[in-house]
Structures are given as structure tokens and as C-alpha cells.
Design goal:
Blueprint lengths: L12 H18 L3 E7 L5 E7 H9 L6 E3 L25 E6 L5 E2 L6 E10 L2 E2 L4 H14 L3 E14 L2 H6 L21 H16 L6 E4 L5 E5 L3 E2 H21 L2 E4 L12 E9 L2 E2 L12 H13 L4 H4 L20 E3 L6 E4 L6 E4 L8 H17 L25 H10 L1 H7 L1 H17 L6 H7 L4
Helix pairs in contact: 1-2, 3-9, 5-6, 7-9, 10-12, 11-12
Length: 464
């Protein structure tokens, strides 16, 4: 069975010598001058420091070290506003946390010139930090393994591509943005030159970082792109997704374009992050029934039932922002907590046959942190299996019209309140994790409480 999480070995004198070797060789053979030491924050972004490559190597070779970062990298909102109180605030003095570099898996990232990336795992008392997104996912993978199951994952994500750089968009106060395509180009292979050049450059950059792409296509909304990655272990899928977003922004900038992963970047447009999941046992897929290749196994059915019951109570993990909720109920985004066979209007879509049968969780938006969204999905699956839950009848046709189905809330404060009060979420994720993520979720909601939007002015200026 695949290990739940790739945690680097502790840095002892012996392990430093063996671990630094591959990085030294990489730096020398590729002529690299920069090492980015990074961890993943609650929003799913890379945060860290830029190091001179040879200075970084000399520090490692001189003896065991454990680099540190300000602990607030695990406790800020989207705009890097820290929590008002708690362990990552002035109340705690904004102290540092140790991070453990994964030296064995350093990689060149071609979208940054002459640069290697080394991911680092936040620590608490020498152990993986329980509030790190990767640790939160690892906990769910371990508990699923305790039930005898492994999860394999493929992630596909949509994003929007606009003409001009992000700095130019900011200077224009985010107004007048022009998508790189201007009509429905879903599955189209006749793409405008800038769009085609970007897609090729992005695929090449990812391939150069050993991040293979399964497919890239343009979508129905103007300027919308969808990227699909191969199936594999859950931690690798999440790491790949985080690096892909970093690459997409950098490659777009190089082409004088701007990429956004907002869930709803404009009226009537939604970008999702779809989680393709299957259960495995003893290195064999077990999502499908052994008797009927097109039907769910008992565990597969329980997984579907768990997803529909528990994900509703863990909204901030897959819809973390106010804007996240504006995608729900839109085109190809679910509005009801139902499932169906090859039905893209459902929250959970069952697709494939036999060994390839798997679940597609369509709730998360493109803005979600993949580690947290996947942790919520796996916790929900475990909830269904341990509770021996049974799924309702699958929905056919447009799920929007499904009678008696639970409706997804489009109000972020209701989502946070439900999560904060949920005993199920606290049992599945742990009190400390829930309290921390609740604090971050309220920080996001409160950010918008006193902001007056263009939509409010347009609706109320002359009429209120």
C-alpha cells in the first residue's frame, strides 16, 4: 500500500550527507543558482524564502539544520492578514516554526530561471505540524488506511486566462479585463495564437519539472482553460496541483497574460476543481462491484453516501471564500447534494466501468486548497464506510430539479456556522483543526463585511 504521506527523514549527520548529495548534483549539473525553500499555506500557495543555491548547500553540508519560518504562514487569510488571536497572532508573539526540507525530492522548476524547489514540512515538537494542510490530509489518509483502504486521486482544474499582466489588471482596478478567447471554445483545437502559445509553454514547463499533464483543453467560458493530471497517490496529486498553479501564473506572466483561479471571476462564469477518487485495497481497485462492472461496490456506495452527508458540513475546506459560493448553482456547478451516473449536474458523479469506475467530487472550486478539499472528501468517505451509510437513488436529468434534495448554501456565513457547529466535522477532523479553519473562514467573511461592491452601487445608488 502506498504510504499516506511523503515525510522526509529526520536530519541527522548521516542523513544530511546522503540527502544533500542529490540536491548538490542537481545544482551542479544544471548550473542552478537559486533554491526556493517553500511550504504550502492554508490557501494552497507556496510560501517561503529564496536562497542562493551554493550558500544553501554549504549550510546543509556544515551540519544538521532545521530552517524556520514565521508561524503565521499557517494562519493568515487570502490577503495575508493574520488571525486576531490564537497561536499564529500577536497573542503568541508571531513566533517561528521549524520546517523540515524534503531534500530527496528537490526538483527544477523551468518557469523560474536556474531554480530548484525544495518543499518543507512544518513541524511542531519535531513532528509534522497538525495544522499544516499536508498533515491534515495525511491524517485522513492514515485513518482510511486503518480501515484497509487506499485512495487514488486525479485532479482537474479550470482557470481563466486574460490579456495583459496581473499588474496591469491591478492598475486598471480589475476593470475592463479581456479574456484571451472571446467565445465558447469548448474542445476547440482552433485557438488564437496567444492561447495556443500559452498552453504549449505551460505543458513544456510542467514536463520539465517532472509534472506530466494528461490533457489540456479550452472550455465553454471565454478565456477558460481546463487542465487534467494523471491518477496517482493523493499527496503527489496535491503537490502537483500546487506547483501547477504556481507555474500557470508564472508562464502567463511571461506571455503577458494573467491567470486567475477564482471560483467565480465574473458573472455567470464558474471554475471548478474536480476531485476524481477511487478506493483501492491490496493494490486492487474496489470502487466497482465485482458482480456488476457498472455498479458501485458496497464500499463505493458507502463512500458516495458519506460524501453527500458530511461534505455539506465541511464547506470551508472546499469553498473557502465569499466568492467560492457564487459559483455554486452556476453552469456545470452543483446546486443540490445528490449523485448520479455520468451526470455533471450532481455533486458526486459516478463515472467509468469496472476497474476504472470512480467518483468525481464536483463541489470544490478552482480556488480551493487541494490538500484541504481532498481531506474533507476522504473524511466524508470514511464517515460513510464506518457508518455503513447507504446512498439515495441516483439522479437522472438536471439535478437542479431534484425534489427533496439538500440545497447547497450560497451564503458563506451560513457555511462557516454549519462547520463550526458540526459534531461530525469535529469527530472526523479533530477539534484543533476545526477551530483553526473556522477562525480563518471567519477572517475571510469579515473582510467583506464593510466593503461596498460595484454590484451594490449599481443596484442601490439611484433606487434605495
Amino acid at each position: 500500500m502506498t504510504p499516506a504521506m511523503r515525510i522526509p527523514r529526520p536530519l541527522s549527520s548521516a542523513s544530511v550527507t546522503s540527502a544533500v548529495g542529490p540536491l548538490t548534483e542537481l545544482v551542479a549539473s544544471r548550473g542552478l543558482d537559486t533554491v526556493l525553500l517553500a511550504t504550502v499555506d492554508p490557501q494552497g500557495r507556496l510560501k517561503g524564502k529564496e536562497h542562493d543555491a551554493r550558500t544553501f548547500l554549504r549550510r546543509l553540508e556544515s551540519g544538521p539544520i532545521t530552517p524556520e519560518m514565521c508561524g503565521y504562514v499557517l494562519g493568515t487569510d487570502l490577503g495575508m492578514t493574520p488571525l486576531p488571536n490564537g497561536e499564529f497572532s500577536w497573542e503568541s508573539g508571531f513566533g517561528d516554526i521549524a520546517v523540515l526540507p524534503d531534500l530527496d525530492h528537490a526538483r527544477v522548476i523551468p518557469w523560474e530561471p536556474d531554480t530548484a524547489l525544495v518543499l518543507a514540512h512544518p513541524l511542531e515538537d519535531g513532528q509534522p505540524h497538525p495544522l499544516s494542510p499536508a498533515t491534515i490530509l495525511d491524517e485522513q489518509l492514515t485513518r482510511l488506511q486503518d480501515l484497509g483502504f487506499e485512495a487514488r486521486v486525479g485532479i482537474e482544474t479550470e482557470f481563466l486566462l486574460y490579456e495583459g499582466t496581473v499588474s496591469e489588471a491591478a492598475a486598471a482596478d480589475w476593470r475592463g479585463l479581456r479574456p484571451v478567447t472571446w467565445d465558447n471554445r469548448d474542445y476547440a483545437l482552433d485557438r488564437p495564437g496567444p492561447a495556443a502559445d500559452f498552453s504549449r509553454s505551460l505543458r513544456q514547463a510542467l514536463a520539465g519539472a517532472a509534472l506530466p499533464v494528461e490533457a489540456l483543453k479550452f472550455e465553454s467560458a471565454p478565456g477558460q482553460v481546463e487542465m487534467t493530471f494523471p491518477y496517482g497517490p493523493a499527496p503527489a496529486a496535491c503537490e502537483q496541483h500546487v506547483l501547477f498553479k504556481h507555474a500557470a501564473r508564472a508562464v502567463a506572466e511571461q506571455h503577458r497574460l494573467a491567470a486567475t483561479f477564482m471560483a467565480a471571476p465574473s458573472d455567470g462564469v464558474g471554475s471548478g476543481m474536480h476531485l476524481h477518487l477511487s478506493l483501492w485495497k491490496d493494490d486492487q481497485p474496489v470502487t466497482a462491484s465485482e458482480q456488476d462492472a457498472g455498479a458501485l461496490s458496497q464500499a463505493g456506495g458507502q463512500a458516495v453516501a458519506g460524501l453527500l452527508e458530511a461534505l455539506h458540513e465541511m464547506g470551508p475546506l472546499w469553498a473557502p471564500y465569499v466568492n467560492s459560493h457564487k459559483r455554486l448553482g452556476g453552469p456545470f456547478a452543483p446546486s443540490k447534494l445528490v449523485w448520479g451516473r455520468d451526470n455533471r449536474s450532481c455533486a458526486v458523479r459516478v463515472v467509468g466501468h469496472g476497474p476504472s469506475l470512480h467518483l468525481e467530487v464536483r463541489l470544490p472550486g478552482a480556488d480551493a486548497n487541494p490538500y484541504l478539499a481532498l481531506a474533507a472528501a476522504l473524511a466524508s468517505i470514511r464517515h460513510g464506510i464506518t457508518g455503513k451509510l447507504e446512498p439515495d437513488t441516483p439522479v437522472t436529468g438536471d439535478a437542479q430539479w431534484a425534489d427533496d434534495a439538500r440545497v447547497l448554501s450560497r451564503h458563506p456565513w451560513a457555511t462557516v456556522e454549519r462547520f463550526e457547529a458540526s459534531r461530525t466535522a469535529r469527530e472526523l477532523l479533530g477539534e484543533r483543526v476545526v477551530d483553526h479553519l473556522v477562525s480563518l473562514a471567519w477572517l475571510e467573511v469579515e473582510h467583506h463585511a464593510d466593503r461596498v461592491t460595484d454590484a451594490e452601487l449599481a443596484r442601490g445608488f439611484a433606487q434605495a
